[in-house]
Design a protein that fits this description.
It contains four helices and 19 strands. It has 247 residues and is mainly β. The chain folds into two domains: 105 residues, no CATH class; 113 residues, no CATH class.
Length: 247
């Protein structure tokens, strides 16, 4: 059986409901795919996102490329490890891309990567570019992560279509994968480093905090690939129930 919440592609959220749409970054309107309507202004959208689904398979990160109605999932190895992919039965289809079809019940740690397609528009509307010599205030307000117009989001959140997920906001800074802890009104952003090379992070200004996380304050115009990581809190319950049925 197909996981009922599986989806991928581009979606606009209108009145708490997600709709498949056609949209290119920078456009002023989205085009709904399921119904024939006039294009919808992006200002009327709560969110416009590109969704990719990831999980782990045999302890290894994979992209869930597609899923059929019988619950067979086409997955792509997502850690650039061709040796592991070959050993585990993946087929080399394109350059650096290895695919395999598996039972969805064999997946774990299911989450959506939701790329915020309105981030650049929102950033330009709310923040000026940094001024040389102007100090950054931190991305935290009195020790609490700051939020501007709903960004960033974190914690357990009920999102569109009644979905409940555990959200962390992420972005890249100088190529580093980071968690966005907070955004202040002056454009200061508090980051936590999520990579493995802590020596390199320290060399580029990240500092170890009292809770043993590497943190740095940067400007919002230093960020790239702003996205939300949505851990699906329903998937494991659904998978476990189907696993019992499978026997």
């Amino acid at each position: 059986m197909r996981y009922p919440r599986y989806r991928h592609g581009t979606f606009a959220v209108l009145d708490g409901v997600s709709h498949p749409v056609s949209y290119s970054v920078g456009d002023t309107h989205v085009h709904l795919l399921a119904v024939r309507t006039q294009p919808v202004p992006v200002e009327a959208c709560e969110r416009v996102i590109s969704v990719q689904v990831y999980a782990t398979y045999r302890g290894h990160g994979v992209l869930v490329d597609d899923m059929d109605e019988t619950g067979r999932a086409r997955i792509m190895e997502a850690e650039w490890d061709e040796e592991w992919a070959t050993i585990n039965g993946f087929v080399h289809e394109n350059r650096y891309e290895y695919f395999k079809t598996v039972d969805v019940l064999d997946l774990r740690d299911y989450y959506e990567k939701q790329t915020d397609l309105l981030f650049l528009r929102w950033r330009a509307a709310h923040f000026a570019r940094p001024v040389d010599g102007h100090p950054l205030t931190g991305g935290w307000a009195n020790g609490t992560p700051a939020v501007v117009q709903g960004r960033p989001r974190s914690g357990v959140v009920q999102i569109e279509d009644g979905r409940t997920t555990e959200v962390t906001t992420r972005a890249e800074y100088l190529g580093y994968p980071c968690e966005v802890a907070g955004i202040s009104a002056d454009g200061s952003v508090g980051l936590y480093y999520l990579g493995q090379d802590t020596a390199r992070a320290e060399a580029d200004g990240f500092e170890l905090t009292v809770d043993f996380r590497w943190a740095k304050t940067v400007h919002i115009y230093d960020l790239a690939r702003y996205q939300e990581h949505h851990a699906d809190l329903y998937f494991e319950e659904w998978r476990s129930a189907r696993e019992l049925t499978r026997g």
